[in-house]
Design a protein that fits this description.
The mean pLDDT is 87. The chain folds into 2 domains: 1-41, no CATH class; 45-154, Arc Repressor Mutant, subunit A, CATH 1.10.10.10. It has helices spanning 3-9, 17-41, 47-59, 66-72, 80-89, 111-132, 137-151, and strands at residues 64-65, 93-97, 105-109. Helix content is 64%, strand content 8%. It has 7 helices and 3 strands. The chain is mostly helical. The chain has a 3-stranded antiparallel β-sheet with strand order 1-3-2.
């Protein structure tokens, strides 16, 4: 087990199965993130901005407050406002005051943002399939279950 990981990290052995699993997860996540960064960079947005657009597409035509977007992010970072500002400048999102509470600013995806996601969807689907093609459905279920165990305390 872990021969590719040992080679990648230039290690002869792991201290424990737990260390091997966590290091494998970190390296795999970094690898997948790198692929996503290359795909999103082609369109002038970051992976985090892509995530924001996907979140807003899920509630379209409604929107979310900055705080709610932050709660739903895959990679929670403190600079959601700055990322939304950049999307706003590109015309991919719009902001307005909430009808119920004028103190709350709601961000919505624009038609241009939806078009960008439509353009990216086929690219991501092909990329996702190529990365998991060697995994069986059972492997994917096991991986998802294990990831759930690792993050259950954060939910």
């Amino acid at each position: 087990m872990g021969e590719i990981l040992k080679k990648r990290l230039k290690m002869s052995k792991f201290e424990s199965p737990q260390q091997e699993a966590i290091l494998g997860l970190i390296v795999a996540a970094s690898h997948v993130r790198s692929i996503i960064e290359k795909l999103t960079a082609q369109t002038g947005i970051s992976p985090e901005q892509y995530n924001i657009l996907r979140i807003l597409k899920g509630i379209h035509p409604n929107g979310h407050s900055c705080g709610e977007i932050g709660n739903r992010m895959l990679d929670r970072s403190p600079d959601i406002t700055r990322r939304i500002d950049a999307l706003l400048k590109q015309g991919l999102v719009e902001r307005s005051r909430s009808e119920e509470d004028r103190r709350v600013v709601v961000t919505r995806i624009t038609a241009k943002g939806l078009q960008l996601l439509e353009k990216l969807n086929p690219v991501f689907n092909i990329s996702e399939l190529s990365r998991v093609k060697s995994l069986t459905a059972k492997d994917c279920e096991d991986l998802a279950r294990i990831c759930d165990k690792l993050i259950e305390e954060d939910v």
